[in-house]
Amino acid sequence: MTWKAFHHRAEVLRAVIAAADGRRDPRLPMDVAGVAETFDGELDLLAALQLKWHTRLAGRIERVFAEQPLDLPDAVVRAWSETAAELAGVRGVLDHYRDHPVDQRMEWAMRVATDKEHVFLAVMAGRSSLADEAARTVGAELEQRARRAVSRPATVAPADSARPRLLDRLRAVVAA
122-137: per-residue pLDDT in tens? Predict the structure, then answer.
């Protein structure tokens, strides 16, 4: 893939994400300009959206962990729900094709992606290891908790009343 093709693919993917977020239609936006020339069918586009989701989720988990959370499962749930709110259209498309794949290849791909995400969530929450057979179940439970959190968003406290982070409190103690 050339540099120009790489950037064109990224531009088309951004347009697809914007269309999915704007429409809130769970079907793949195959009608977006450039999709047919850039992606090799629905499965290729779905894989690109899955990668975008996973990358954003992993980054969000890292950002939440940087705040020094004391409860890792809650931090993972928060990161998942924040990512789902940010990429609501993408999450809707992924959920739709996980539940209603168009063929066996897509069914297999979505099952593998879902299983890997569940294992990732369980491991990041400190509730499992990669080798643990229960990791998928634990991750699925975390995802369900996060989905409930998305359906009832928390109220945000004003910035001046926010509690200081653990790291900030430790710095203050060391400085004193």
Answer: 999 999 998 888 999 9
